[in-house]
Amino acid sequence: MRSSRLFAAYVVVMVGAIGGYPFLPDVPWLGTGWQVAIGWAAAAGTVVGVRRYRPPGGAAWLLFGAGVLLNASGIAVATLVEWIAGAPVYPSVADVFWLALYPCLTAGMVLIHRRRSTARRSTTLDAATITTGLGLLSWVFVIRPTVHDESLTLLGHLVVAAYPVGDIVILALVTRLVLSGAWRLPALRILIGALVMLLVGDVLWVVWSQLGLEIGGLPLSGMNMIFLTAFALVGAAALHPSMRQVTEARDDSPSGFGPVLLVALTVAALIGPAVLTIQAASGHVTDAFAIAVSSTVLFLLVVTRLAGLLRHVDAQARQLRELARTDALTGLPNRRDWVTHLPLAAEQARRTGQPLSIAMVDLDHFKRFNDEFGHPAGDRLLKSAAAAWQEQVRAGDILARYGGEEFIVLLPDADPAQAVAVIDRLRAATPLGQTFSAGVAQWDGSETSDELIHRADQALYASKHDGRNRTTVDSAVCGRQV
After folding, report:
1. Highest mean pLDDT among 175-179, 186-190, 398-402
2. Count of CB atoms situated within 10 Å of the CB of 250
3. Helix H or strand E segment including 439
4. Taking Cα atoms as reference points, which of 465, 401, 471 lies closest to residue 436?
């Protein structure tokens, strides 16, 4: 309860502080101090959250807080540099503080990914595909235009390029986290919101700078509010009670290959051709090499993803085939699989002249056992009986679950006496002091599988009729009980 109150109080204070920012009087350093105070308060929120909740992998949250602290401090440094120089300076030492946000966020996100085991191959490929497409846009509209800006030094070019590169890295990590399904946690949703606000702010700065517009007054306040909101959301995420779960080791369930992801991947894959078409239509193809590289990477990523999907489908098909042949409870072959072996064994017996027998086995009073101990206990009895019996049959015999508490055994090269000996071993190994009734029938050399199974079933019912806990050999062979 106290944690929830702390979170709510923080949100109220931050909403008031950010909402009041545009209405500050035009006093030197007041706006700068206001922004820095919000950033530092958000950074302090991450520390408080780590100390209060003590999450595993708390270093990730401290890295987020450090990034916000440094970025907010850069605002004060930029104002100080401008005051000393008497005019805006770009690039300046303030960019070191602003750019420090990106490695801190990246390191924190990597720690979250590693602890949550979200590094699925498919998720990584999907995130890389989306990021590659958007990276081409960043190159065409942000990075390359600065190359021809003669007003910038080499350092200036590097600094300008560093911001979109940092945004691309953050975008890749956020996309990977969203695709993994980890966004379901409230604290993670808030953190993702913070990163999205940061990306939105950077994109708007790019748009304004590319249009050559002077930013000031209310638009500048609105732009600053976007970054202040990003700062505040980082602190809010750290103070939310669910923040402890963010860095807990777990295996997130992927969100699946749904229509939204399919549209996102399609759009990303078409960015290269779209840019090339637009430039060709304008008569100036200026980014042919970048488009070729991006398209090649996207093609390889798509092919790799397709290969992974095909392997996944093939693995599922094998699993379905196995499930179709296996009883889910006992792990034995099921009735459908067992009956496919009987005609083959009969044909083998016909060619070699060896005897072939089958045995039907039914646990005695199984319904009463279920009623007395419950169905889970009944399931455990079936599983333990199947495991014990499987160890007693001969090599080449096939024990299967026929249905319910009924089992069936295929006994190649076994006459009725040998079959009864095997069944006796099964009876001695039956767990929990339980008994069973059995019926044995030997193939006559010409009857169908259904007829042979019917005779074994009739012998089983004869065992039950005569008092249970016994084996009856079909009368067509020798008509005796054991």
Report:
1. 398-402
2. 12
3. strand 436-442
4. 471
Mean pLDDT of the 132-148 span: 76
| Range with the poorest average pLDDT among 92-96, 140-144, 349-353, 428-432 | 140-144
- Cα 374 to Cα 44: distance, rounded to the nearest angstrom: 56
Hey, is 326 helix, strand or coil? strand
Interatomic CA distance for residues 166 and 103, integer angstroms = 8
Task: Name the range with the highest mean pLDDT among 215-229, 260-274, 410-424.
Answer: 410-424
Q: Which residues, in sequence order, are CB contacts of 280 under 8 Å at separation 6+? A: none
At 156, is the secondary structure helix, strand, or coil? Answer: helix
Looking up tokens 């007693």, which residue turns up? 392
- Peptide bond preceding 55 in cis form (omega within 30 of 0): no
Cα dist from 460 to 10, 186, 353, 394, 413, whole Å: 75, 61, 26, 21, 21
Q: State the SS3 of 40-107.
A: HHHHHHHHHHHHHHCCCCCHHHHHHHHHHHHHHHHHHHHHHHHHHHCCCCCCCCHHHHHHCHHHHHHH
Domain boundaries, the chain: 2-120+180-254, 335-473
Measuring CA to CA, how many Å separate 127 from each of 61, 105, 255? 23, 17, 13
pTM equals 0.63
Distance CA 169, CA 376 (A): 51
Q: Quick one: DSSP state of residue 440?
A: E
* Residue 409 parent element (H or E): strand 406-412
Residue 246: which of 177, 185, 173 has the closest Cα?
185
The number of CA neighbours under 13 Å toward the Cβ of 6 is: 17
Work out the percent of the chain whose per-residue pLDDT is above 70: 90
CA distances from 393 to 63, 369, 387, 429 (A): 62, 25, 11, 11
Structure tokens that stand for 285 in this block: 């193809």
Q: Which residues pair with 178 in a beta bridge?
A: none
Strand 436-442 to 406-412 pairing: unpaired
pLDDT of amino acid 250: 62
pLDDT digits (tens, 9 = 90+) for 226-279: 999 999 999 999 999 988 888 776 655 554 556 777 887 888 888 888 888 988
How many other C-beta atoms are found inside a 10 Å radius of the C-beta of residue 4?
A: 11
Provide mean pLDDT across the span 47-56. Answer: 92
Percent of the chain, pLDDT > 90? 48
Is CATH 3.55.40.20 the classification given to domain 335-473?
no
